[in-house]
Amino acid sequence: AGAARRTPAEELTPAAYRAAMDAKFFSYINVIDPVVKRMAARGSGVVVNIIGNGGKVPATVHIAGGAANAALMLATAGLATAYAGKGIRIVGLNPGLTETERVAEGLQAETRLHGITLEEARQRAVARIPLGRGAQPEEIADAVLFLASAKASYITGVNITMDGLQSPVVV
């Protein structure tokens, strides 16, 4: 669906928060709502929301987008609860640093915030990941494929962190 702009806190305005909710939260909800109702009518289906860790781990350049992510994680769990009895599974996947244009945008915001080069921002980001690298898009796709498959038929209503152990959690 959509993605919110990464913006340093000093550059945020109420309009930026609204734009983040429209770009991230409502773009997902606008798709999920009719789809999940059709799935419920037929009695089966899976929704995998690729959300992002910004809703769990605050970042100074992703406050508005993180708030939208947190709202989407709650909607994921709530909708999963509401539709589980109708044969629907809804799961959230929260990737961390993934080698995409989206991450490049976030690194640009870091350069403005800290007055560092793009390469320094990338090195700092990777240094926070115990696996020592960002994810490849194919790795995220593999996780989505598994979560959408019958092999994950008992997984629903959760938001799974996939960030190379950057944010270890016990749930």
UniProtKB/TrEMBL annotation:
InterPro entries: NAD(P)-bd_dom_sf (IPR036291), SDR_DHRS6-like (IPR051122), SDR_fam (IPR002347). Coiled coil: none annotated. It comes from the Bacteria. The keyword Lyase does not apply. It comes from Inquilinus limosus MP06. This is 3-oxoacyl-ACP reductase. Belongs to the short-chain dehydrogenases/reductases (SDR) family. Keywords: Oxidoreductase. The keyword Oxidoreductase applies. GO terms for molecular function: oxidoreductase activity.
